[in-house]
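User: Hi! I have a protein structure encoded as tokens and I'd like to know what sequence might fold into it. I'm fairly new to this, so please keep things simple.
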């Protein structure tokens, strides 16, 4: 949720914090719907299908919002398969991506009837062939290519360059499709790319599309009968002051791709749909002034939102107005680091910020935290994972209860128990 959302939602956020406790993730269903609509409108006239990338935020209720909008799902594990099924997605509306699918995962995907399995290596294709033959079925597969496109995003979220673990180099695709052509257990339905995440420049998509167009022409000369082309996800959003991806320019790249190859385009956005629709709400435990520095110590930490520690990601932060004013609150000119209680120097949510008005007891919102927030959270330091709340208009509901210490210990055995 953007900072603007806070001003008319402050009472709601205080009510959620008081009743559910903090830290807590809060998602706005209306914002998710609005973003889905914006993307659909930008792609109007282009035959396309949006497969929401479940990994961005895999809460069942969030998945439900996207399913009701008509999205398909992009999954990467049997865990995500199960989540998507429980949220009501049909298996035929799912794409199974991922660089290291296990044999049992391929088998479960075929058993469930997953619509498309995107393979990322010849070895995986051969394994899929074995699994499909054993099941006496035909596996519809796609090939994720590595188009060798460099994206200007964080090194950890680049995926489309030569030498990375992802995708199949363009030149290695034709031997795979020739091998698959003679087999009743395999049917090549799609080729595609996913070139990275938090992409702000639409030219990268046009570059990737140009490579795919050449490849598709080549495959058709070999007799391939494709049903769709997959342009992955990666659509970038505004976290602080970035210029978000130009949706019109993005749509132009997708239109060019769809028209040239005469196929519907499948896209797999995650962050774009849910990132700006969520925030992480924490409470300030202490303002600690030490050796010339000021730390705002929240009850939320790197285990709840890993992005700042892992990527140096910068999320906007805001004080939720309406708390008790304190005379020792931070001023306009005090620069602070916002940190959590975890025992790591890398445990910070933001550095070098000004947060006037914040004092112990204040509610602080970390904005645009709806994507890769809870889904990447852990229980490091034996901190139970936080609650998740879905707001829809004036209503809200807890859509994942806060974990308890018993939840954390479930499945473990003491030394005495194994003796
Ligand atoms: N399709 C595939 C094959 C992917 O690997 C991903 C994301 C997506 C679609 C969706 O990408 P999106 O539209 O959300 O950018 N944890 C990182 C992002 C990692 C993305 C991994 N793959 C972060 O917090 O920035």
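Assistant: Happy to help. Inverse folding works backwards from shape to sequence: for each of the 419 positions I chose a residue that suits the local structure. Here it is:
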């Amino acid at each position: 949720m953007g900072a603007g959302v806070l001003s008319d939602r402050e009472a709601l956020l205080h009510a959620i914090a008081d009743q559910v406790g903090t830290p807590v993730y809060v998602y706005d269903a209306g914002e998710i719907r609005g973003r889905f609509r914006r993307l659909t409108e930008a792609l109007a006239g282009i035959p396309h299908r949006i497969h929401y990338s479940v990994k961005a935020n895999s809460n069942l209720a969030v998945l439900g919002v996207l399913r009701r909008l008509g999205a398909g799902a992009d999954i990467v594990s049997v865990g995500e398969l199960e989540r998507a099924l429980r949220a009501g997605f049909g298996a035929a509306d799912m794409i199974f991506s991922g660089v290291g699918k296990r044999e049992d995962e391929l088998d479960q995907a075929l058993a469930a009837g997953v619509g498309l399995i995107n393979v990322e290596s010849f070895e995986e294709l051969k394994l899929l062939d074995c699994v499909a033959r054993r099941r006496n079925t035909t596996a519809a597969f796609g090939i994720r290519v590595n188009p060798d496109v460099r994206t200007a995003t964080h090194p950890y979220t680049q995926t489309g360059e030569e030498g990375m673990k992802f995708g199949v180099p363009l030149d290695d695709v034709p031997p795979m499709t020739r091998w698959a052509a003679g087999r009743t257990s395999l049917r090549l339905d799609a080729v595609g790319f996913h070139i990275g995440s938090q992409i702000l420049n639409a030219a990268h998509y046009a570059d990737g599309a140009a490579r795919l167009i050449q490849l598709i022409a080549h495959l058709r000369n070999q007799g391939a009968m494709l049903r769709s082309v997959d342009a992955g996800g990666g659509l970038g959003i505004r976290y602080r002051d970035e210029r978000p991806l130009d949706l019109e320019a993005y749509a132009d790249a997708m239109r060019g791709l769809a028209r040239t190859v005469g196929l519907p385009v499948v896209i797999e956005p995650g962050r774009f749909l849910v990132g700006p629709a969520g925030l992480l709400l924490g409470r300030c435990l202490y303002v600690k002034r030490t050796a010339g520095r000021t730390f705002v110590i929240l009850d939320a930490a790197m285990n709840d939102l890993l992005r700042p520690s892992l990527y140096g990601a910068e999320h906007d932060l805001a004080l939720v107005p309406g708390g008790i004013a304190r005379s020792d609150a931070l001023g306009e000119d005090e620069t602070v680091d916002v940190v959590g209680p975890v025992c790591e120097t890398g445990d910070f949510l933001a550095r070098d910020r000004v947060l006037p008005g914040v004092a112990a007891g204040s509610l602080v919102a970390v904005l645009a935290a709806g994507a890769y927030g809870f889904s990447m959270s852990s229980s490091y330091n034996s901190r139970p994972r936080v609650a998740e709340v879905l707001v829809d208009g004036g209503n809200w509901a807890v859509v994942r209860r806060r974990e308890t210490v018993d939840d954390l210990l479930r499945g473990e055995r003491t030394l005495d128990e194994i003796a």
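A useful reference point when you look it over: The CA atoms of residues 46 and 255 lie 6 Å apart. Feel free to ask if any position seems puzzling.
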